[in-house]
Fold these 3 entries.
Entry 1:
Amino acid sequence: MSITFFWILLSAMFVGLPVAFALLFAPGLSLFLEGKEMFYLLLTQRLYNGIDSFPLMAIPFFMLAGEIMNRSGITLSLVNVSQAFIGHLRGGLAQINILSSMLFAGLSGSAVADCSALGKMLIPAMEKNGYSKRFAAAVTAASSVIGPIIPPSGIMILYAFVMNVSVGGLFAAGIIPGILVGSSLMIMTWFLAKKRGYKVASQKATSREKVQAVRQAFWPLMTPVILLGGILSGIFTPTEAAAVAAVYALIISLSNRTITLKSLPDVFYDTAKSSAVILFLVGSAVAFSAVISLSGAPQKVAGFMLTLTENPLLMLLLINILLLIVGMFLDAGPAILILGPILGPIVTQFGIDPLHFAIVMCVNLTVGLATPPMGLVLFVASSVSGEKVEKISREMLPYLAMHISVILLITYIPALTLTLPKLLGFA
């Protein structure tokens, strides 16, 4: 079987066909042109089987938890905690933005939710405190990519499902890279703030004020502790953890009276719509991957890559460059679903740990969310701030340099990602 489906896929996406439909149209047309319509039944079976999966139930539950927390105003309590601890640093509001993203990542796992929720609150505040609007939007976009890296993470669940990797292991492996990304952004912010003379956000908080801020945000801050603790200790599975997260978010929001029973139908409806889009995309990708296997494309690509180099370090560099380019144009979820089955067998031949490569790929494609020209969070930041994407992109360049530096670190120092999973028995 030829790889005609791949060129049809690129053409369909180029003319604007939605990715989920392109993933079905490309193999369907390719099989028709090659007279292999007998495989249509395989496509439909894989489409259904790709959706009918217990592990994938984690995605709508985590999305529901994030939607509830986002609507209930929990974001404000996270910002207050960040201000209490680092508001006195140079460029304090920008630093608060980054730390809030790290805290919010443990609740939603979504870069778009992070950028939207924190952007609406912090971009106007930063502008009032002397920051340019484009810089405020750039910091928000750059820090929002931490959302899918620090667990829980929707794209890690997708990768684990497609590539048969442990979700708990992926979650454990993402903690240190997420902290590295946040820390590197804070270092760059300190440097830019000093160079440009940005102000501190507030006076150094007293111990009493810090305790009070933590107390107000205690229950939301316990969310990642409960989830990761339960998953890593084996009390519940990642799917069950997602359900726990949704119930926990609902209890917190109702007890704080920050959300009402009347508003819940809208919350459930929005979550259902978003989940349906993602699950249909997953089903389409699973059907597409079946055709990839039939065509022998992974073996062909692996053979081609082996003609370029047999050095695993150089191979990782080439794959990183490919992923960065793909991430500029394609969202992280579809990119993982399309490229995972192709690149996975290649790195296995080079003796690279599947869990290590999983994190490298997830981080790489997540950074693509904030990379021009098509980075999704750039458009979200533009919408929230009213600033043009081009101007935000220029301010993003120093932060993109930090992103790439972290990618290279986790690529060539596997211990940064594998140590914690090994200690917990996942690798």
Entry 2:
Amino acid sequence: MNKRLKQCPVCNSNLEIVEYHCSNCDTSIKGKFGVGDLDLLTPAQQEFVKIFICSQGNIKIVEKALGISYPTVKNRLAEVSHVLCRGKKEPKIRLSEDVLEDIEKGNLTVDEAIAKLKGRS
């Protein structure tokens, strides 16, 4: 079974669920159906939330489970919070610490990091 589409592949607008269908008895139910807030998250954000909840919010456990630093955990938590807590101020993303972590891991060169930081400032 395919995952639910969130955006129109033609115009990129948000899609609505307007029909449910039972393949067993051929019943169809039409209307406008909402989706849960967690479905607004990307698959990566959903996985992060799952690990965060299963670790009972212990950031050190999340760090170890995902192999990421404390600032990265906080940034991902802020991103999820921004999606789920609409109406709150947009969180500050601490990009510079993420970039430094990527340099340490060898995922970015210094030149790539400079370009990335200049692009966000």
Entry 3:
Amino acid sequence: MNTRTKHNRALFIAATVLFWFSQYVYIPNFTPYLTSFLVMPASTAGMIIGAYGLTQALLRVPVGLVGVKADHSRHVMLIGCACLVLSSTLLSFFKSGIVLWLSRALAGVGAASWVCFTVYYSSNFSRSTEHNMGAMVIANNLGMFLAYSTSAALSDMSGISALFGLSTAAAFAAVALLCILFSMCGKVVEAPPAAISAGFLDILRNRKIWMCASFTALSQFVSFATMISFSASYAASIGCSGTQIGFISIVNTAAGIAAPAIIAGKPVDGTHGARLVTIGFACLFLYCALLPRCESFAALLGLQFTGGLGRNLIMTSQMSEAVAGIPSELRAPAMGIFQSVYGLGMMLGPIAMGALLDYTSGYVQSFGAMAALCLCCAAAPALICRGK
């Protein structure tokens, strides 16, 4: 990799980090903001949080198809960052349920452009599939780590409004870095449209992509129902401050950085991938089973690391396995399908958890239902391999 390519790679990774920072800097305190400050029912909060996954599930396949063309892919990334600017601006000035839902839906539109981020990196700074996906997952989690660290430092002192403003600024900065990068890069040779159309039909028939996407969707369902949303409300209910809730999220994201490092350099084939899925869901089972019985901050930190490790072991391994062997010109639609399916989990998880909390009025029962789901998912890979 020459010096110019390394410089371009650094610019792109920096933009990616800012892209994720913008999305998550206010998230640790967002659910308590909805349920405690705005006094919304848990089911309403779940609908607002779930809007983020809804637009991703709807848009990631179309975005993947559009992203086949390099110039279009660049436009999608810029539009995605612009949507994040608008989303956080709406959060800063409005408090009605409809506008809050719209703002999170716009954040989901921005996140849908992640398809193009992953494919752009894979196509322009490639080594191996495992390295590409691991580097992007690390950039993702680094952005979240910095976002949660900032949230922990500022939430008690400045309030959530300041975090909304930082989200806007980070998205603007991501747009600026991408513009600088794209201005320095020339056009690339496009694949023939006929080849792409024929290949897309093969992708739709690829059972491995659907299987990997399904496991990832289930992990996202559990994660967004718990550690990305209502775990913060539980922490607040046992007396954790905004700073402590931020630290809980930091530990969760640190686990997300550790998971790709554990997998790095090892081929994620069917057997190894199945093993990682089982380990990942076992970690999520422990997280869901133990968290609502946890009343100390230190124990919450340990559980957040366990849950974050499980979620990201599944995400990294299945993302790598899903696109392994896919031609570079077809990775965008393949990744679009993969990310669209797991976007359903991101949407449905908070909605299901909100309904469970309103129905049961208890964290033990609601988190227990998620633990039971994780236990079933942990056993599934072994059963599938035995069936083959």
